[in-house]
Amino acid sequence: MVIASAAAAPAEPRPPARPVTDAADAHVAHGTPTGLAADLRALVAPERVLTRPLDLIRFASDASLYRLIPQAVVLAADASEVAAVLAYGRRAGIPVTFRSGGTSLSGQSQTAGILVEVRRFFSGIRVLDAGQRVRVRPGTIAATVNAALARYGRKLGPDPASISAATIGGIVANNSSGMCCGTVDNSYRTVESLTFVLASGTRIDTAAADAEAAFAAAEPDLAAGLLDLRRQLLADHDLAERVRTKYRVKNTTGYGLNALLDFDTPLSIFTHLLVGSEGTLAFIDDVVFATVPALPHRATALVLFPTLAAACTAVADVRAAGARAVELLDRPSLRAVAHRPGVPAGLDDLPASAAALLVEVRAGSEAELVPLLDAAATAVARTPTLAPAEFTRDRQAQERIWAVREGLFTSVGAARPSGTAVVLEDVTFPPERLADGVAELSALLREHGYHDAVVFGHAKEGNLHFLITPRFDDPAQVARYADFMAAMVDLVAVRYGGSLKGEHGTGRNMAPFVTTEWGEPAVALMRRIKQLADPQSVLNPGVILTDDPRAHLAHLKLVPSIEPEADRCIECGYCEHVCPSRDVTTTPRQRIVLRRELVRQAALPDGQGDAMTAALRRDFDYDVRDTCAGDGLCEIACPVDIDTGKLVKRFRHQDHPPAELRLAAAAARHWAAAERITRSALRLGLMAAERTSSERVGNLTAMLRRLTRGLLVPQWLDATPPPAPPLPPTVGPEHAAAVYLPACVNRMFGPDAGAGLPVPDALVTLAARSGAPVWIPGDVAGVCCGTPWVSKGYPEGAAVMAEHTLASAWRWTDGGRLPLVTDASSCALGLRELPEHLTGENLDRFAQLTILDSIDFVHDTLMPGLRSRLQRDGGSAVTVVAVHATCSVQHAEATDKLLAIAGAIAREVVTPAAGSCCGFAGDRGFWRPELTESATAPLARELAEHEAGHGPVADYLSTNRPCEIGLRHGTGRAFRPLLALLEEQTR
To answer: Model pTM?
Structure first.
């Protein structure tokens, strides 16, 4: 037994080196001031005004180095509510800031005033003109837009590295670019029209036929002022030429003065000033983009050079050859990623002076690619390299090469010392001076003690990123950071005439230095733009423009050390869009932010943190611990591979009393009895529902749950299944191709009416039909993957079950001779994780087992024998199926096999972009049904939109029985097992 070690008490998190607090934050322990809360609730539905201390703290951090605690958080539902909050902010003199994805790196989505969250109710995509254009709401994730455009061979122009998490509102507001789009396909160039709401409440759709007249009528001072600013700039020939020059390279410092030169009507000028305005001029309600070709044909190379100067010298030739991506990586960058999974070998052995260029050419066809590839190879060959450049068209090899570039943020963030922050900045040197600029920047970083800094970026544009990891709880390190920033600004903006910000927006970190880069005459124009659009400065003050020369050193975020499961978190927010609880309680990032806040408060002297700690603890259990699905999708999305569910499971374990831990271990020893009890409970519940109604049974359990605080009675759902029937007979082990362990969820939960055969019957039938029969041992009752104990925080019970299951599997498979197949994807994943609870000989035995999900078994072993049955009538009789790839399928990287099986059954397979995790989490959906209802709401909306636009879906499929229950309950659609449909179609 390994119960004692599994339950060992974790080391306590380390407090900050020097506790720092801000007296201005003292009010937060009491939540939003009563008067402000009442005023906002008069404007917006009360449940969408967040006022608890826990809510204010969880929205206080974004991906940047700053932390500002809002006075209130408003979940606006539409533009009219945004206008109402803006009007209130003007009257009350309280700043208003918009936040969507929260992935900005310079503090643009933070405020000490009113924070308006514009993500959850502001998403939506409408493809126009066969993909040539697309209308998008600001809360929509950019990668989702590209997924919708993929069928048309089109994509968005902006391609930031954060595209999987960044939302359209932020991308436009920061004029984000990325690896390939440069200054040609960024938001400024590809936004055709947009709808905005001014601080005054005026709402304009710039695509409307009368938009220009409506703008001039509603905002005469703004319209006239913009024309006057245009005339001023055109009259100052030197400044106008300076503006043109500075925007020939990437530049997001300050307001986009090029709009005053590029456009000649007030509304067209203002439309393009909004691009890159970071929420300081207006709220952007929706955007119409002109899309660009997706260019699916690619050739990629990682070219190694003996020196950084040599790599920079090659950039001009490679750019001239038509390369779409030219990414520079200095030697520390290559060293940082050398041991990352999937990275090409040999990066550790390079000379100390080495550097690399990641070069990629792209085209719409193979014929177009060939000359581009030849030109790029010729260009690279003009500069001496450490090894001949090898361009590859193999997608897996290309992914390995891109893992070098994309793994930088991951590697440096994960390896940073505990307690340090992550600062990722981007500057632009004139491309012709790139070599000297990057050399001096690297020297400057070393001079200021940032010896672990990495320098990398979009060399084709002269746009470089540098990443450092200072501690902001140490005054000496803050002073060092201030000195470095002053020196860096002088280097880039003064000596090289470059851009202090190339693509991340100005934000708080560079706002004090806008004048240094642009000079007073240009900044005077910017100040006038702000005054015209937002006279009371209610919109996001302190971002882009500030009069405080030390504003970039205020509100720096402290990062106290916490539990090792989550200590590496850089609070980037990449995890949030996949989290099932994101719209009902908290996200993974917010759970970590709240945990850090508790540690921060505990470190304050003389009980100063007691009030805040008590306030957070009031809501912590439900918001952080109880509503986490523990699905681990956050680990897949996280750039530093954090599974926040593991941290939550630690919390659950710590909160269980010893008697409960012992009871959980006893349940593991008597799991067969628990299965029988569950089937009996389902039978009784169904009898009651048949005699009264399912709704009445649900109401009864809801009442009992209120009386017991939701702790003792599960919720009866409309999708609660019947009990499972007995398992089907099978051949003996001597005739079997595999041992089949029906998951306990399929031994307890039977199929819904009309769903086809029970999963065990379907798999046994399919195996026999394909000539690869399976054997179900007679003693499978009581054997489990252990996931119920792991997810609920009972490691002792998980260890008991792991040993029992391993012993059974070893005996059944004849010491690993036969593979072990299970029929629930989550259980297959749980079985593969048994080693976490095993020791000694059991670990050796486990290594000899072959564990297969039914997806793998069906795809690899059964489908060859079934395919002729599917094709016997000349094609599938099933038209369209919607497939939900569960979180376990995604963890196992089995999505492609799942879709291949579905594609063999149906003529068309729909995979909703919103289908991440259903939030049912084994049985948590019975205890916290609101989690499942919230998690599946986006999926339900997307399915409804698809059905409205493309017609009915014949079947809804999944590979996990609890997920099917949650999906049926949350979406109202009859999700059922993929195996049941496959069995029907191969009869």
So the answer is: 0.93
